[in-house]
Design brief:
Structural class: alpha/beta
CATH architecture of the largest domain: 3-Layer(aba) Sandwich
Low-confidence stretches: none
Largest sheet: 6 strands, mixed
Shape: elongated
Number of helices: 14
């Protein structure tokens, strides 16, 4: 009887009954709410009532009837006993499922903030709701989620891993990180205050990327890791692993520092202007390791007054990247480069609201964002604009 049409009806009653903490009213389903009822096929109608009769015989539900001169008609189905109905349907009660899921967790190394998240998950599951993109049907992922978060918290700020590396090293399965991306992003979006950030942007903030690529840059500095030294003042640019970004020395002060969001624009800029300033490819939203490197650069070049620029898309995500870089730069201003677009696509009302909520960034950026939001258009991919050299 696993696929009996009456099963879905009883499952619905059970789901409502499980989350009803106090019986302020009965759980009922009027016959008028049953799709297709009364069934025109007599055999189907008899089979339906035979199935409900079995559940009624177990004390799980009770049928109530309207009586007419010529006979009776089903009025409603009333939930009589939650536990009996769960037993009839052959599944554990919601509370038992939640308890079983949490009994498998190793919370010994979990930080206090994660324990609070787990309590939120428990409460929402007991209410029949999702939490951080997980329902009780995903309970089997909970131990791996806790294990993943403990692994993330153990990483040094300079460590950057791709999804498969992290999964293999911390979870014992290289494919698991991808499966946990949505709940991890939801939890860290709340944890780090990254409202409206996409999942990939949140994951970059915790130094996890789908596939690790070298950081592309060009400028007057030497990067080192242990005894290794790399000269970054090479045209058009070099690529280095994230581990090299934590230690470096400036060999001279660049005329400016320019970050570029997209690789095709970075390639174009470094090809046309091979000896101009210091140029860094952010690969979209910068990872935490790159943010720390950028902050250190901003600090080391502050006394020389080296200006900071950023060139990116003029959509919401592009300005979110600019705001991220501004946060990394501290008190120094990151000036938009080639982002004052005269044309571009219209922003939606939601995007205009998101742009305005993003402020303050810095005075120059705020004036640009407000101008674009006020006129209602200007969203543009930077690849559509030819690279122009920074002029100071």
């Amino acid at each position: 009887m696993a696929d009996h049409p009456g099963k879905a009806i009883l499952e619905g009653l059970l789901s409502r009954g499980e989350v009803q903490r106090e019986r302020v009213r009965d759980i009922t389903l009027p016959a008028s709410k049953i799709q297709g009822y009364p069934f025109s096929n007599a055999a189907k109608l008899d089979d339906f009532h035979e199935y409900l009769g079995l559940a009624e015989g177990k004390g799980a539900v009770r049928r109530e009837w309207r009586r007419y001169y010529e006979g009776t008609e089903l009025k409603l189905i009333r939930l009589a006993d939650v536990a009996a109905l769960a037993d009839f349907l052959g599944r554990p009660l919601l509370g038992a499922s939640v308890d079983a899921a949490f009994s498998k967790l190793d919370q010994s190394d979990a930080p206090a903030w994660l324990l609070a998240c787990l309590e939120v998950i428990r409460e929402r599951w007991l209410e029949g709701k999702n939490a951080y993109g997980l329902s009780v049907d995903h309970a089997d992922r909970l131990p791996a989620l806790v294990q993943a978060i403990c692994g993330i918290e153990s990483l040094s700020p300079e460590s950057q891993l791709d999804y498969r590396q992290f999964g293999a090293r911390f979870l014992g399965d290289s494919k698991l990180t991808r499966q946990l991306e949505a709940p991890l992003a939801a939890i860290y979006r709340e944890r780090l205050g990254l409202k409206d950030h996409r999942a990939g942007e949140v994951m970059a903030q915790i130094n996890l990327v789908p596939l690790e690529h070298p950081t592309l840059l060009r400028g007057p500095l030497t990067l080192h890791q242990g005894e290794d030294r790399i000269n970054a003042d090479v045209a058009p640019y070099i690529g280095v692993p994230a581990g090299y970004l934590s230690q470096f020395q400036m060999t001279s002060m660049p005329a400016y520092i320019l970050t570029i969001e997209n690789q095709s624009s970075f390639n174009e800029y470094t090809r046309h202007f091979p000896r101009s300033g210091m140029v860094i490819y952010t690969a979209g939203y910068p990872t935490r390791a790159l943010q720390r490197f950028y902050g250190a650069l901003a600090e080391k070049t502050a006394d020389a007054g080296t200006p900071l620029y950023h060139w990116g898309d003029t959509d919401v995500d592009g300005f979110r990247i600019l705001k991220c870089l501004q946060a990394a730069a501290g008190t120094r201003s990151v000036v938009p480069h080639q982002m004052d677009i005269e044309s571009g696509e219209r922003y939606t009302d939601r995007q205009i609201s998101q742009l305005r909520q993003m402020m303050p960034i810095n005075p120059v950026a705020d004036r640009l964002v407000e101008s674009l939001a006020h006129r209602g258009y200007g969203a543009c991919e930077q690849e559509s604009t030819e690279a122009n050299e920074v002029s100071m």
